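Sample pair:
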Amino acid sequence: MTTITLVQGDITRQSADAIVNAANSSLLGGGGVDGAIHRRGGPAILEECRALRASRYGKGLPTGQAVATTAGELDARWVIHTVGPVYQASGGDASLLASCYRESLRVADELGARTVAFPAISTGVYRWPMDDAARIAVETVRNTPTAVEEVRFVLFDDRAYEAFARQLD
């Protein structure tokens, strides 16, 4: 049984086997969580992302998919990069957002990760409504078979923390 915990704070300060990055499809860094992970994790993450772009993901990582790299200088073994849907562009397609969590857990299982820290995927510049994103995230993690022992949602502010806490009640 997977334990789900909530933490308010900075995902780049978490100690976990894997930290999930809400990446953009380029895998080359960006704003929000993505930029913070690349800045704190250092150049090793970007190097591996560039190699992935040069090999398997020439057109970028598709929305809803996930891939792992080193965690560089973060207190983790791996970063699992997943591309969340843009709310307006996807028409609010919940299956794409759920896929981010499912695919990240699948990659975590392949790696042997036991603790995984997730941000609230797509809730920043991709504008997914927080309450709906929290519902999708919690339901998907609860209903996805995985060997991961702890899923930790690391939430940046009070609003996000409260939305996820309501889903756990």
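The mean pLDDT is 97.
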